[in-house]
Every structure is written in structure tokens, then in C-alpha cells.
Amino acid sequence: MIRTAMTPSSVPCVVASADNAGACWWLYMLETAQGRLYTGITTDVERRLAEHRAGGRRGARALRGKGPLVLRYACRVGTHSEALRLEAAIKRWPASKKRALCGAAATERHEADIRAVLAAAMP
């Protein structure tokens, strides 16, 4: 089972790149009422979550009518390019692997795991 709802301030944060001083891109995962996971990237997790929950034009179509939405994972990953690559890589994962990442976020091995994913996603 996935941990309880989190906010970006309570979510473990890993800086996956040392050269991200100018950008602060986050990878996040939301869980819908049906238990499905949605993965996305943003520069402001709280704003993006509010947009998804509002269900308007700014929220993802895939999430409209699927609430309540719960933030399950958020991780600062570096540049926009790194965030896009990581998002694409994680979207190809099976749900079980995504849930394992959400569950591993509080462990010491989390930083190594996310760095390995980033390294594999980079050309």
C-alpha cells in the first residue's frame, strides 16, 4: 500500500543534478480515486495539484472526474530536460514498480534509485 497523502514540503526531496541552480523541476505522482497513478512534471507541485483538482483547462484531461486526487510522490530532479526524460522513463514502468518507488521514497536507497533511473533515461 502507498503511504498517506503528502505535500511537497513533507515529501523527500532528491536533487538529481548538481547543475540545476536556475531551474527547479519536479517529478510527481498522483493517485486517483480508482487507484491509478498519474506521473507528471512541474516547477510548482502545489499549484499543479490544485490545477488538476480544479479539473479545468489547466488540469490534465486524464484526471478530470477521477478525484479525489492524492499526491503520492514528488522529487526535485533538476533541469526541464532531465525531468522530461525521467517522466518518459517512469511512464513506461508497470504500476508495481511505480508504487515501489513511492514506497521507497523515505529510504536511504531512494537517492541512488532515482539517480540510476535518470542515468538510464539520459542518452
From TrEMBL:
<keyword id="KW-0378">Hydrolase</keyword>
<keyword id="KW-0255">Endonuclease</keyword>
<dbReference type="Pfam" id="PF01541">
    <property type="entry name" value="GIY-YIG"/>
</dbReference>
<keyword id="KW-0540">Nuclease</keyword>
<protein>
    <submittedName>
        <fullName>Putative endonuclease</fullName>
    </submittedName>
</protein>
<dbReference type="InterPro" id="IPR050190">
    <property type="entry name" value="UPF0213_domain"/>
</dbReference>
<dbReference type="GO" id="GO:0004519">
    <property type="term" value="F:endonuclease activity"/>
</dbReference>
<comment type="similarity">
    <text>Belongs to the UPF0213 family.</text>
</comment>
<feature type="domain" description="GIY-YIG">
    <location>
        <begin position="23"/>
        <end position="100"/>
    </location>
</feature>
<dbReference type="InterPro" id="IPR035901">
    <property type="entry name" value="GIY-YIG_endonuc_sf"/>
</dbReference>
<dbReference type="InterPro" id="IPR000305">
    <property type="entry name" value="GIY-YIG_endonuc"/>
</dbReference>
